[in-house]
Amino acid sequence: MAATLHFISLVIVPDKLLYALARPLLFSLDAETAHNLTLPALQRSAKLGLTRALPATKSDPRTVMGLRFPNAVGLAAGLDKDGAYIDGLAALGFGFIEIGTVTPRAQPGNAKPRMFRLPQANALINRMGFNNGGVDAFVSNVQASRFYQNKEGLLGLNIGKNADTPIERAAEDYLHCLEKVYPYAAYVTVNISSPNTKNLRQLQGASELDDLLSQLKSAQLRLADLHKRYVPITLKIAPDLDTEQIKTIAAALLRHQIDGVIATNTTLARDAVKGMQHAEEAGGLSGAPVLALSNQVIRGLKSELGNAIPIIGVGGIFSGEDAQAKIAAGAALIQIYTGLIYRGPALVRECAAALAIKSSK
Fold first, then answer.
1. Range scoring the smallest mean pLDDT among 1-5, 64-68, 300-304
2. Rounded CA gap, 137 and 82, in Å?
3. Active site residue 9
4. Pick the catalytic residue: 45, 145, 193, 194?
5. What pLDDT score does 50 carry?
6. Cα–Cα dist 341/127, whole Å
7. What are the residues facing 268 on neighbouring strands?
8. 257: helix, coil or strand?
9. For the chain, how many structural domains are there in total?
10. Hey, is 58 helix, strand or coil?
């Protein structure tokens, strides 16, 4: 409860000093426990109107994938897997929010503990395993949010496959989720890059990816006709790709006219955290160590895609300068997650201001 009260105070008076004072208490808790305390507190604060005290985020409208984004800073998927905290997260000033990953059926994810902080490296390791309540509950949460009802902003819905679905039938899960979330999404992200679902990254291979994207594109066009609204699809890929793999993925994106690509998810590499406590835990590493890896993938994609398909850059953003580096590498928009945990809500405003300055030059 103390952590919850500290987080409510953080929302009401969101300055760097206060977060610096609150963070040690939050970090004294298990990472997943802190997560499960702070998000409900943020949601309650939004419902009570307390988040209105938050400073405004710099306006920097830009059009990407045919969508008008209030600013270029988004929330990456993973923080709110069930869409239960949309209104609270929206109050932090993001230009867009991505929730999920959601699967067709509810699943508990991997055994706990499954999230670990590496403060020396400004990093996290997680092996959550797409823990979520299933796509029907997910859609109900979206519909119940004020953010969705009042059309307050852009909502990305991130879809995946159940852990017990054989990889050769993965497309069935993605198509099922796409059908369910399509009417409520500003865009839909297809997550084939989490390292925490067995064999999932196999879908990044040439033949598997071709088959999946072909089916998704056909479904997208059918749903666009049914709902009289075209919803863009983005593909989320891993940072652990070589030059040839990046070229293969880029070619598939172009061939199937996918609307965007999100680069990148977490990494399996451990070189940057070697010898640190928890460094050898299984799972995906996020945070500062992913910055260079992510930027390298973004540059590779940009070289292949040019301006044909926009890139959303995510991984290792801890400052306005990091956000600018993502854009310089070739991203049109950015997303943050781990940086928010280490830096607090001020990071959203800092990145938005930095990108607004850069876009005005």
1. 1-5
2. 7
3. no
4. 194
5. 80
6. 17
7. none
8. coil
9. 2
10. coil
Q: Is the pLDDT of residue 10 over 50?
A: no
**pLDDT confidence tier of residue 11, bands split at 50, 70 and 90:** very low
Q: Are residues 303 and 332 in the same domain?
A: yes
Domain that holds residue 281: 59-360
In a shared domain, residues 18 and 66: no
- Kindly report the number of other CB atoms within 10 A of residue 184's CB atom: 17
Read off the pLDDT of residues 144-179 as tens digits, 9 standing for 90 and up.
999 999 999 999 999 999 999 999 999 999 999 999
Same domain, residue pair 272 and 228: yes
> What mean pLDDT comes out for the span 18-42?
85
Q: What is the pLDDT of residues 172-209, one digit of tens each?
A: 999 999 999 999 999 999 999 999 999 999 999 999 99
Gap between the Cα atoms of 281 and 359, Å rounded: 40
Report the DSSP pairing between strands 62-64 and 67-69.
Answer: antiparallel
Asked if residue 64 and residue 41 are part of one domain, the reply reads no
On whether the CB atoms of residues 332 and 307 are closer than 8 A, the answer is no
Output the six-digit token pair for 261.
Answer: 């690509």
Q: Which helix (H) or strand (E) holds 236?
A: strand 233-237
Q: How far apart are CA 265 and CA 191, in angstroms?
A: 9
φ, ψ of residue 214 in degrees (nearest 5) = -60, -45
Which of 37, 119, 126, 31 shows the shortest CA–CA distance to 85?
A: 37
Say yes or no: 305 and 354 in one domain: yes
Q: Two tokens at 77?
A: 């998927």
Q: Distance between CA atoms of 57 and 90, rounded to whole angstroms?
A: 11
Confidence of residue 15 (pLDDT cuts 50, 70, 90): very low
CA–CA separation, 238 vs 192, rounded Å? 8
183 in the same domain as 39: no
The Cα 18–Cα 55 span in angstroms is 14
Q: Is the pLDDT of residue 361 over 90?
A: no
Same domain, 141 and 226: yes
Please tell me the pTM assigned to this model: 0.94
Q: Are residues 151 and 47 in the same domain?
A: no
**Gyration radius from the chain CA atoms:** 19
> Which of the 8 DSSP states describes residue 76?
P
